[in-house]
Amino acid sequence: MLKYPQPIEELIRYLRKFPSVGRKTAERFAFHLIGWAKEDAQNIARCIEKLPQSLQLCKDCAALIETTCPFCTDKTRDRSQLCIVASPRDIFLIEESRSFKGLYHTVDKLLSPIDGIDPSYLRLEALERRLRQKEVKEVIFALDTTIEGDATALYLKDFVERFSITTSRLAFGIPLGSSLEYTDEGTLARALSSRQPL
Questions:
Q1: Is 139 within 8 Å of 82 (Cβ atoms)?
Q2: Which of 25, 57, 149, 186 is 20 to 30 Å apart from 91, CA to CA?
Q3: Are both 155 and 139 inside the same structural domain?
Q4: pLDDT at 192 over 90
């Protein structure tokens, strides 16, 4: 197989780390980037380079933040509701629906014993600390409707109910096997408003 010059091959290798990007797509992206103006290429490189220094995770909800968390510090939010999501991005997807005014808790990964992902990834200590404050009355599971998402929701449901807190999950308006990342605002809003007991 004909190989491109080493710098292009290296760029292709990194572009393939994006979800659903195979060799051909990575090649198209690479050659598109090569065609960028030098200033644009330098700007995107600087942007990527400073991401680790300019972003951090909120110690309570694990949202991506610059300094203070806009969710946890907002006194107008409903502290009786806690929405559990699988990634920091899911918080912003739910916020776009303008249907939820409570707080969030992000798990690091969804349970998957075959991949070695056990309950230690669920940030249980942070969750327990918040539940013991007695403000939370309902925990809403906004996890992907996959085997891993369902397993995580069931595990966390048992954990949360030890604190005599009501649990619910998004209604099944979200297609089975899909990810929140690909759900439109309207569907997400309907799923939140018609959530069901778990």
A1: yes
A2: 25
A3: yes
A4: no
